[in-house]
Structure formats: structure tokens, C-alpha cells
Automatic annotation (TrEMBL):
Name the record gives this protein: Acyl-CoA thioesterase
A Pfam family this chain is assigned to: 4HBT_2
CDD domains in the record: 4HBT (cd00586)
Native organism: Metabacillus flavus
Lineage, highest ranks first: Bacteria, Bacillati, Bacillota, Bacilli, Bacillales
Similarity comment text for this entry: Belongs to the 4-hydroxybenzoyl-CoA thioesterase family.
InterPro entries associated with the record: 4-hydroxybenzoyl-CoA_TE, HotDog_dom_sf, YbgC/YbaW
């Protein structure tokens, strides 16, 4: 499956009293990875929102393995792990500069109409995204 890669600098404000990244900041970095993946597939989440569609998180699981610390770069790897035409499950791994796995995570999303929060069928509403997600599951990279 296609994997998008990006890096973020660990800033001092993102760390806790122990000097390691505060656990909730990984969720922000997951969003950075997810946005990068969508861009790498040729789309824009902002354009989806402009069309009145949102993609809320409906489930989240994060396994914390090794801490990241101030001054390091976190390497974020993101991919489409599962896609049904309605629900998208994104997979994430983040690595320390030494290449050690810092976290492994998955987040599940559905697309909903902004005004009603009723789910939509991605396959019907965004056929180009549907094709790209299916292709990302099949391709290497």
C-alpha cells in the first residue's frame, strides 16, 4: 500500500514535565500525516470542506512505544489501512531520529454533511477520492 512520509520538529511547547512529547500532540501529528497523504493522492481536505463535507474521527487507537523529545524530528508514515466506500481507516507509524518506532496508531473516519452530520457515501459523492483510496491500498510506495 502507498505510504506518505513527512517530518515534524518536536517543539519545546509540545513536551511535558518529563521532557517528552505530551501524548495528545501525537494526534495533531497524525492529522499532519493524514493531510499530507491526502495531498500526495492529489486532493485537499479543505476543498472537501468547501463542498460542505467533513470527516470526523469515529474511533482512535494509539500504542505508545518510545518517547520523542524536544529538538528531535518525528518521522510520520501514513497510509490508508482500510476503505469501505463510507469509512476510511488510516494507519500511522512515527519514528524517532534513530529509526525506533515511537507510536503505532489507527484512526477511523466517515464523511458527513456539514449541516446535518449525516454520513455520505464517498464512492458516490467523491468518485475520484474513491478511486485514489482503492489504488493506494493496492500500490506500493
Amino acid at each position: 500500500m502507498f505510504t506518505s512520509k513527512t517530518e515534524v520538529d518536536v517543539r519545546y511547547a509540545e513536551t511535558d514535565q518529563m521532557g517528552i512529547v505530551y501524548h495528545a500532540n501525537y494526534l495533531v501529528w497524525m492529522e499532519i500525516g493524514r493531510t499530507k497523504l491526502i495531498e500526495d493522492l492529489g486532493f485537499s481536505y479543505a476543498s472537501m470542506e468547501e463542498q460542505g463535507v467533513l470527516s470526523p474521527v469515529i474511533d482512535l487507537n494509539v500504542e505508545y512505544k518510545k518517547p520523542l523529545k524536544y529538538g528531535q524530528k518525528a518521522s510520520i508514515h501514513t497510509w490508508v489501512q482500510e476503505y469501505t466506500g463510507v469509512k476510511v481507516v488510516y494507519g500511522y507509524e512515527m519514528y524517532t531520529p534513530a529509526g525506533e518506532l515511537a507510536i503505532r496508531a489507527v484512526s477511523s473516519h466517515v464523511c458527513v454533511k456539514k449541516d446535518t452530520f449525516r454520513p455520505i457515501n464517498i464512492k458516490k459523492t467523491f468518485p475520484d477520492w474513491d478511486a485514489a483510496y482503492k489504488n493506494a491500498l493496492r500500490s506500493e510506495g
